[in-house]
Amino acid sequence: MVVYRTLSGQAVVMAAHCPHMGAHLGFGGRVVGERIRCPMHGFEFDSSGACVRTGYDTKPPPTCRAKAYPVHETHGAVFAWRDPQSREPWFDLPDGDYDGWTALRTHCFSGLRSHPQETTENSIDIGHFAVVHEYENVSMNEPLRLDGAHLSVGYHFERRAMFRGGPRVSADIRIHVHGLGFSYVEVNMPAYGLRTRNLVLPTPVDGDSIDLRIGLRMRGAGPMRWLPAWFMDRALGPSAIRTYVNDVSQDYEIWANKRYVERPPLAEGDGPVPKYRRWAGQFYGEEGRAAAE
User: Fold this and answer.
1) pLDDT over threshold 70, residue 112
2) Superfamily of domain 2-57
3) Which residues contact residue 20 at a Cβ distance below 8 angstroms, ignoring those fewer than 6 apart?
4) Which CATH class is domain 105-292?
């Protein structure tokens, strides 16, 4: 794929190879106004993938059309729709209101040997919160809700203080999952007067690995609600994203080395794994993950 912006600012995601003679548009190609120009013969394609000009100013071949993917920008990220069954988009992503929030800080775990279904499954895997992340007194305070392509669930947990001498963290989190490529976690920590919104964005790279991008924004709550976003970002942003990266790093080695167990022998305390897997199966057909592999 090639990803670019047109002169007007529109984000476009397109198949990388020119449908004319196969040149890679990302190596020597360039954006010309609202079009992308092939480096080999000068053919130009609009954002829909239609060839609108040849390098010789002759009539474009009607069958010369590049594959363009539906795109939606929200939460500070660019999302492209790709369906293994070639279906048109059948659910939308919500837009995010970030007025008063800090700038987005991000980190990418590249080449993680895993699958979006695995990383997303952490959202309902209650058992791993205590074992992997050392959360204490974990409880579900909002039941699992499945609504089409949207999953939501809420938890409460406690953990050690964020800094020496500080109060213990007592947090309420609400997880939102849309499809398997976009999750965000709303975190409320009243003792610190802090709210965060954490993004989890797994992008398939090939049949074996993903790039896992994470992002974080903050805003004040309670007595800290008057602090300007720029001040919070400067004072707390570096440590907040380090903490988030550390939490995800605790999962990384497990994800990279585990294998998928299609019918796990579940125990009480594991969380609603079967419900999640049935929900996730809609993105890969009736057989779910096993069929995708």
Assistant:
1) yes
2) Rieske [2Fe-2S] iron-sulphur domain (2.102.10.10)
3) 38, 40, 41, 43, 51, 61, 64
4) alpha beta
